[in-house]
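Structure tokens please, single chain.
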Amino acid sequence: MTAATVPADVLSGAVTPADTTDSATFDAAHVWHPYGPMPSPVPALPVASAQGTRLTLEDGRSLIDGMSSWWAACHGHSHPRLVGAAQRQAATMSHVMFGGLTHAPAVDLARRLLAMTDLALDAVFFSDSGSVSVEVAIKMALQYQRAVGKPERNRLLTWRGGYHGDTRAPMSVCDPDGGMHSLWAGTFTPQVFAPVPPPRGSSEQVRAVYLAGFESLVDDSVAAVIVEPVVQGTGGMRFHDHELVAELREICDRHGLLLIADEIATGFGRTGDLFATAAAGVTPDVLCVGKALTGGFLSLAATLTTREVAAAISAGDGGGLMHGPTFMANPLACAIAAENLDIIAEGRWRDDVPRIEAGLRAGLEPLRTEPGVADVRVLGAIGVVEMDEPVDMARATAACVAAGVWLRPFGKLVYAMPMYICDDGEVAAICRAIGAIVAAESAAEEQGENGDENR
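Here you go.
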């Protein structure tokens, strides 16, 4: 249907195409959802509203949001202080271009970010998503090496099992084989990959052997090291030791490389520390933050770097960083983020995250001996049950929704990232929902072994 053939009442707004059927059916037929085909084999659940820890579906059911809506809504949905910040800013200025202009929300947010992070991080580049913040970080590293006379340094070194986003450069540093972007192997600049880091709690000797192998991969083509410190997120929800991050800093220093820390998932208290790099005693050359930056209200991210890096880039070819998103430093998002960082700075999460960690350990550890479970791991407000086999999404969704919780497993991983405001009962409910998924998978496996053709 072209614009010329669309009925006049649709163009006028009197009727929209979605009015011809219910929203779920229209969604399934026309709206693409993440990481899947269209139409989706598992229909999306229509959400009517979100308040506190709860999602209310259109049919009236209430679900605990055990995902913090992809790790962003750390203080809960519709937090009154964030709502207030949004309303005040929207009444004044929702958006203005950042080219040649500036505004108080961006300046205020930059001040808060610089005060909250390492003192050596001195310059902030705002973007509109975490993936773009990594794109910018990689561009910074490449422009920096060009500016200091090392243009041959045009590749990134990382470890396998990582995930850094879905845009082009971040995809190139995601796990090249086991990750969701393996489809694009051979179409990117070939990056340098070390093995998956040894798991948290490894011995000093194991770490030393691993790091020696990691350093052996450094050659004259490597511009920077990029990692998710302490927690690898969507690439596998693996945890590693702070000491590994500290040694990566030393490797970078020995070879003149930049260290890029992707703290989009780990920043702002999720692991029990404000930032994983700071807890490791590490100053990255470039720090990426996002997700919880606005408390889940709007998409916003930032890439922070040192004065040395910023000055070198600014003096090099191009005369500055060659990037500029349309919604860079969006005033509405910046105002909300500034209020959110005030909430973070007040520090209630420092009590809440350890409490949630204890609840997750108590609720998930008994699942370790269940059939089909390969591992259970908890760190901060992150709880993971890894299965032996990939989880069936439709079955898992049905099981957790029936338990009154929203979870979104992927691959072999059933995990939760509770909001910091979840009380002990809600954390226990999230654990029971994970247990329900494990039980559903186990029952299906047992039926399959008995010859169930519908498995």
